[in-house]
Fold each of these.
Amino acid sequence: MFILEKRPTPSRFWMAATPVLAVILTMIAGGVMFAILGKDPFEAVRTIFWDPLFDPQFSGYSRPQLLVKAGPLILIAVGLSLGFRAGIWNIGAEGQYIMGAIFGAAAGLAFYPSENRLIFPLMVAAGAFGGWVWAMIPAILRTRFRTNEILVSLLLVYVAQSLLASMALGALRSPDGGGFPGSRNLSQWATSANPELIAGTGMHWGVVAAFIAVIASYILLQRHILGFQIRLAGEAPRAARFAGVNPNRLVVLCMGVSGALAGLAGLFEVTGPAGQISIDFNSGYGFTAIIVAFLGRLNPIGILLAGLLMALTYIGGELAQFMLGLPSAAIQAFQGMLLFFLLAVDMLGNYRIRLGFGRAA
Amino acid sequence: MDLSAINPAVLIASLMVAAVPIMLAATGELVVEKAGVLNLGVEGMMIMGAVCGLAIAVEAESPVLGFVAAAAGGAALSLIFAFLTQVLLANQVATGLALTLFGLGLSSLIGQGYVGIKPPPTPRLDFGPLADIPVLGTILFRHDPVVYLSVLIVAAVWALLRFTRAGLILRAVGENHDAAHALGYKVQRIRLAAILFGGAMAGLGGAYISLVRVPQWTDGITAGAGWIALAIVVFAGWKPWRILLGAYLFGGITVLQLNLQAAGARIPVEYLSMSPYLITILVLVIMSAGRGRAALNAPAALGRNFHASR
């Protein structure tokens, strides 16, 4: 029988190695799933992980997409990771992302068709504010009434989706759209557009914001007292209280930051790659970002790499759908599997596996 | 708006039907949480139950087999959760989320071949002349067996937790796993059984959506019912009878909002359809704000992993 023995201190080697191990295990299990679906597993895995980057036919289109898809994932995941480290579970990033897009788009469309250069910064601020407000609801309810923030933030996703539908069909519907749902196209209106900054890279303002967020949160966690308090509150809540960390302040701060970053991601998405507020412009980034945060071990640099990898599965998934007829849901299941394997191998960092016989412990 | 089109007896009868999925899932989760485990994957297990139930019911042309398969599907998914949290000691919150994300993906993968197919109808239980009693007959005696089964399960769980030794052990494990371990109870095994029961109940609840309430397959068919079930457990203060109350309350809101939509209320459809979620949040706030009462009822070891060698 195997026995788990707690390590005195977490193993540094396994901390770094577990995400890689999880990705490999997921590829194997995913290959089995693809084989069950009647596809050649090796070809499927190659189409997802290799072809988008190195195939001469597809890489021209796919490489820029990498940053386009990774940008929002990284931006949201960095925010989430702060809260997750402190034991504050904001899992409603999808809702905050939608609200950011609605607030930002509404702020911009109010001035249509002005060409004032201040409008885009205003929209960015409104987007961050929208996400922040939506995250403040669970934060305040938790600090004031001790309501579970997991359930509230998640339930608010459904509310945000209903609001989005009402906006796309009502208040924000394009007057020139001939009655079709959806707002004016923000990426074609020069004032509000969030274009590719360097041609052929996929770099837009959202990606820039994601990089800034990674650097800022790295500095925050490594060099700032607040980052120390966040880590302390997560690893030893009692010690944190004795050290004078105010838990309510941390809740408001972590939820607020993650909400604002998710809102920003929504705004940059709706002004750039998505283009307009429509009933289903959101592509589930808010939920996938949870996987990204864990895959990156809640570490900013790790999240950067994890975001790129997860973006690759999106692009490769589309390619596999097009080339091999692999259903899109298979990729979603594949991403979910990745999180399982991550959590499964995570214990290698904290425990040693010993061989032994079932002695009553 | 024509409110007179809404018949109260039919409304009550349909709220009993609407409450079934949430009631089943919440009862299962109650047992899981009483054992000290927080499984946030209810939504994932429900939707797996929904798709397994529909697929098997269509293939075998039998709703009964469909429900059995749904319970098995939900339990199978919860087995992954049990393995990760009980054997590999993974974080319960994160694993629950993973279960939901994975369940949503896998269910839509399985469900692809079943879009637009109607499952075989689940027959009503025949009460003979009782069903013809004017108002009472409509409310109480014209349902399918699962409606009565769900109430029976709530009663059985209540009796189990309150009157039996097994219930006492389950609660002991949930309140203080170290003490239970010291007394010689197999903490992990007891929790495993509770998790499997929770998975099976969530699966049944999901199948009720895809086989009776909707009845067909669409992606994301459960639409947050699993999360509402989790909220109901808090609302109920971890007491089985209050789950019955909570589920009927939310069934009532869902049905009322659907009826208002049909009656052409002045409020836009989108705002009506967000109301169950908003009211769930409101109820959560009220329950948790009431000083201590609900919080004190929560099992003391809820969400904490157990490792024997500490």
Amino acid sequence: MENKADILQGTLDLMVLQTLAAMGPLHGYGIARRIEQISDESLKVNQGTIYLCLVRLMQKRWIKAEWGTSENNRKARFYSISKAGQKQLVAEAENWQRVSGTIGRLLQLKGAK
Amino acid sequence: MIMLGSIHRVLARICAVFQSSDFDRDLQAEIDAHLNLLAEDHIRKGTPPEEAKRLARLELGGVSQLREAHREVRGLPFLDVFLQDLRYTFRILRRNAGFTLFTIAIVGLGVGASSTIFSVVNALLLRGLPFHDSEHLVWISNRADDGLKEWSVQVGHFLDLRDQTKSFSDLAAYATFSQPADAKMLINGELERLNSLQVSQNFFSFLGVSPQLGRSFSADECRWNGPHAGLLSYDTWKRRFASDPNIVGRAVTLNDASVTIVGVAPRTFDFATVFAPGNPIDIYLPMPLTQETNGWGNTLAVIGRLRPGITLQTARAEFQILSEQIQKQHPERNTLRPILTSLDQHVTGSLHNAFLILSGAVAMMMLIVCANVANLQLARSVTRQKEIAIRAAVGAGRRRLIRQLLTENVVLSLCGGLLGVILAIGGTRLLDGLRAFNIPLLSTVRMDVASLVFSVLLAALIGLLFGFIPALQVPSISVHDSLKDTSRASTGSKRHTWIHGGLVVSEIALACVLLVGAGLLARSFLKVLEQNLGFQPERVAALRIDPSNSYSTRVQRNTYFDEVLARTRSLPGISSAGLTDVLPLAGDRSWDVTAKGKVYARGHFPEGYIRIVSDGYLAAMGIPLRAGREFSERDTPSSEPVAMVNETLARTLWPGQNPLDQIVIGEGGSNPGRRVVGVVADVRHRALEQESGNELYFPTRQRDESGPVYLVVRTPLLPAALASTIRTALHLITPDLSGTEFKTLQQLVDKAVSPRRFVVVLLGGFSAFALILAALGIYAVISYSVNQRTAELGIRMALGASARDLQERIVLQTLRLAGLGMLLGSVAAWIFARTLASLLFGVTFTDPATFAAMLFVLTTAAALAGYFPSLRVSRIDPMAALRAN
């Protein structure tokens, strides 16, 4: 339980923003499912964690929330990305590319030795 | 971008703290929806519904943990906890209303008293004088022939010093000869007596004061016989001229002459509060510094402004040399021996000690307050042990508990601090209103930012300090033991008793020091009041009745005086009436006084205070006549010049001889002198604490004086009731008497002792408060210990001890504590009392009577405080007490 949810806070933020940008408005469960599916269940998040991430993003005004009805006709809260969130996503994505590129190269360096 | 996000987040987190329940509700709804969706997914995959729900809960994780984490992420955990603590604090404090109110009250009184004293000390000693660059100002006076008193400076000397000095950038002066109510101003047809002050031309600019309206005096107005000009004080402008904005340029009638108002002093400029406390100045007039005023003798009080970088020491050395040179060039002038002191020192120096002592006293009082609060906290922390243990048992961390206790205490003492600030505002207002007091700068005392900060810091400090006492107990609490009601047998109780005892002993010791100090000052005060003044101020009143300037000859003036006395004496309720030119304790002047036929070296002439009085004055004042006769209405310009001397002057001039019929010269060496016809008792004219010095009396009718004339009356009635009767009776001959100047001599005496009374009342108040607190402290500790020892006392009673024995034991235990406290206190008092020496009068700082009286008071208080809780012993039922074990 302890180890598998151990992903960086910023990474989860980026994943949520990207999911909302790509899929449109989703409720908390939907976001959690989507991230699990994409990661082929290898990155199994403690689903509750998603709500901590959501409230943080809300407070930064990067996402918005609205109450709506879910596919099984239940009241659910739907999140969507805001303009500020989209800008943030672009910046974060660039940053991520750069960092992961650097790390990749570093790892190759180690392999060549 | 990221920055903006962070800012939004911080704001949102603060808001979230206050909307916690909304957030919780939303989160719960989301969790429910989540669990539902998750469970349905499982069901769809074929899991049975019950199992699906269980799996869903498992995948989501712990709901309450999530809720906690959610709160932490969205809100500010420390603010959240703080608010929670605060809510809890208020609940606890409300539940213990008695404890809460008592603590707030004593902390409030303590902080209130401390802040008031701090405000006074701040105004008088710390803030500096209310003038521009006041630390460079120097008071320059002139040492008298006797080497002790200070004289004023002659105009010629002032001018020479000002021209020649290199240490001072400038000198300014005001005339010291003005008497209260000197100036008669005709306002809207009515005569008002105002206090006027003559100042040098540069006086206002020198002090950095610029007029609120108009201007200061011009050089022309400061010539001899120059155009008459006056500058109003702000107060007079407001009161008598209704703040007339067009006042400048208006002519008013002052002392029968037309005077142009050239300006109004600013509200912030209060001459009296610095230089002459209790005698507010209404109008400023120019003082010509010329050959003519030089002839008036020593007239000027001088202030200098040091050049930057010049020390007082340098200036002193320079003035020493300058004064010698100037005296050599002008042997015809009066002597000049300049004394230089910083103006600060001159104004408040004499109060330094008094306020240091008051500060010390208030600090001691504060310590007693602290000891009391600590005692209460300690007693309470024992009863709270169980509550704290329960909270620890359900998971409160140690840090959290300590934080809670600290919050409680800081809140409590800040409430006390708030009360203290309110009290201090009241206290400083009260002081501000005491304008009649003889204490400089008192009218500038107010609660300012510094005082406010002081109070709040003090309160917070007390809170933190006493929060720590129960907080320190937290780690020692064992949950298990506390919950099992065995607190009685806990090993901590011995340590508690010890701490309680120590606090009580220190409270008593501190109270002892305060009581001894207050006692010594109170005894001095009484001794001062008991002084034989040489006159009897009770039921004596004085009214100013200067003859109008239209009486140009001595005969006319004497007729006026005859008429005034005759009319006054014929009034019912007047037992005697007389005239004088100066009232006791309200100003003085001294001249050289010699015995005819004796030779004195220059600078060694005896000096005497001059009083110009009429027949009836001695009776009206109640001054005993020792030998010879009093003046009579037959002592006129045409009769032989006569004088009366007091006993001291008689001894000074004619030691061992009969002073009657000797010739005394008091009006200049060329004067033929006067025959002494009477010897009167010494009058304490300068201060109650000071010997009279030499006094010489001249008959009113044999002198041409332009100074004030007071009608002094003695009456068996209340003097105040007489004012209008006398004014009506005199109206025909002198229509322009003002009502404001009717004062009783008792008022003068009261004003003269006001600084002493001020200190005595404050210190007395502090020590009374200290005594009450110490007694309450003893009471609290003894009743606590009786409660704690119920079982022990029950066993003793079961074994045959009578309730009386036990009560005696408890009272003795109290007295042992009190005795130790008093022993320490007496030693401390004995050490501290010597700092009081300069304020004492007629008692030594080791005065055994005072020490004995204070120890008696304390012992009584301690015995009573121990006796009342001991009464509870008789209510103990031994069986019940044993069973409870």
